[in-house]
Design a protein that fits this description.
Strands 1, 2, 3, 4, 5, 6 and 7 form a 7-stranded mixed β-sheet that branches. The protein contains 8 helices and 7 strands, in the order αααββββαβαβααβα. The protein is α/β, with parallel strands linked by helices. It is elongated, with a radius of gyration of 24 Å. Helix 2 runs antiparallel to helix 3. It has 2 domains: 65 residues, no CATH class; 168 residues, STAS domain (Transcription Regulator spoIIAA, 2-Layer Sandwich).
């Protein structure tokens, strides 16, 4: 019976292996590597060791995926006014918005995936990509980060730890005179928005006006506040020459 089961499994290997080669596994043949390690562990040790290795490596992959925030820097699609895409994946089709850093958070925020969120945001601020090594000198000018827009449409839930980290990040921006906007936040009666209010993030960024429905609206708000700031400077210069 065991031989029959083993033979039936071996029959399924060629088409499955061909499929994973065609789609390049997940993340550059990672699944193929995992299959190979499990296979070798089973051959050179025994079935129990192979199962244990498979379970252990799979859990490590899940934990790595769950604890790494998948934030993105967005750029405007060339020739449009309200279409935005991941600037790292579609670099030839998008253009950066001058004076603004647009960050998309496409997932819930919780204690497990906010640990290095601050470091990743800093890398986006300085290099415009998460792939740059932290020791490299900044290539983005500070003027390009005077407004930060968070697209939080994917933040369908958030715990207290995530809110605390996000508040610390926002406070750091505000202390550097960087204007912060949030767009596509869940409705006002949602638990996510209530947590924004209870944590003090809403007051920290300047009130409900800095929570808008789209990235394009947030960019219009930055332009409006730029005009108001310029008018205030001119008025102060006129009053106190």
């Amino acid at each position: 019976m065991i031989s029959i089961v083993a033979y039936s499994l071996l029959e399924e290997i060629p088409p499955d292996l061909l499929f994973f080669i065609q789609v390049r596994g997940y993340g550059g043949y990672q699944e193929l590597l995992l299959m190979t390690i499990i296979f070798l562990a089973t051959i050179f040790w025994n079935l129990k060791v192979g199962i244990a290795v498979g379970i252990g490596l799979s859990l490590l992959r899940v934990l790595r995926h769950a604890t790494r925030p998948r934030i993105q820097i967005l750029g405007r699609v060339a020739g449009t006014t309200d279409e935005f895409e991941n600037a790292e994946q579609a670099s030839r089709r998008v253009e950066y918005v001058e004076g603004c850093l647009i960050v998309k958070v496409p997932e819930p925020l919780h204690f497990a995936n906010t640990g290095d969120l601050r470091a990743r945001l800093r890398r986006l601020e300085e290099h415009g990509t998460q792939d740059a090594h932290p020791s490299l000198p900044p290539v983005r000018r500070k003027e390009n980060n005077k407004n930060v827009v968070f697209d939080v449409h994917g933040v369908t839930s958030m715990d207290a730890a995530g809110a605390q980290v996000l508040k610390d990040i926002v406070r750091g921006y505000v202390e550097k005179d960087v204007r912060v906007f949030f767009c596509r936040v869940p409705r006002d009666d949602s638990e996510v928005y209530k947590l924004f209010e209870r944590s003090g993030i809403v007051d920290l960024v300047g009130g409900r006006d800095h929570f808008v429905s789209s990235v394009e609206q947030a960019l219009r708000m930055t332009e409006l506040e730029d005009v108001e700031e310029e008018m205030r400077r001119e008025a102060d210069a006129f009053v106190d020459p």
